[in-house]
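Chapter review: from sequence to fold.
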Amino acid sequence: MALKTDASLLSAEVQEEDTLYEQLLLQAEKEMRSKFPTPQESKQIRPQPGFCVKTRTKSNEKVFVNVCKSDQIPPPPDLSEEDLVTLLESEDPSGYRIPMSLGEPHAEVDNSGNGCTAYDLVINSKFYNKIQNNKIFMEFFMIIGFEGLENKYNLELSREWRMLKNRRFLGSITEQNIRTKSKPVIQELKSSTCLEPEYRIMAEPPDEHPSFLVAEVSLPEVDSARSLLLDLGEDRIVLWARPDLYHLDIYIPYNIIPEESGSQFNKNSRVLTITMPVQPA
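The token string follows.
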């Protein structure tokens, strides 16, 4: 999924003055621009149809997922079937990531004339061929794909699905924007000694589409906001605590407004609080 980066968000300690805050903000922005592409570094792709699967939400609403392919999407690391089985039996199978682009939901009509929702999910063409020829990879991919849709669009999808026999897609497949550069910095440091910090995300109001989200990230080994680099995308939080202390890279279930978000590090509790306005439903 593409990350739309904005100016990096970094706040000074509660006790520090505005002048120091501005200096840190400029420093962080410069460093983040060197690590993450800007929104302009993207391009449109036209995915090729692959296959369509039917599933339902937990509230029994019908959902279709158009699995598409494109050479413009990078492939995941090469993995044998034996390696995949070992990974699935490990404590952290989520360590294997499949690059994919998730399109916006579009309203469609099924064969019975009833309204439904469809999503376009684009993966690398060679990896598409691999899952077509291997049942284990297909099952693993569908789990990861459903999780991606759930995280981005706040869904709860059934893990029971059926591939349509006579339809390669439902509706029309539209162009999607993807980043034109890979993320070598993230991929390189994920294999380092960085730890994922404990965090929680709260919605306000909690029982309906929220007006904003508040994330609290516990950073017990961090002494100063000077060591933090924070970047927010529309549906993603990326945080670094230098030197190689913590790394957090998570998707959030709502589209936020990065340019109106803010953060504050409390050096007494060593908790970073991130406040993120949510785009209207």
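Two observations follow directly from the output. The chain has a mean pLDDT of 79. Residues 3 and 233 are 6 Å apart (CA to CA).
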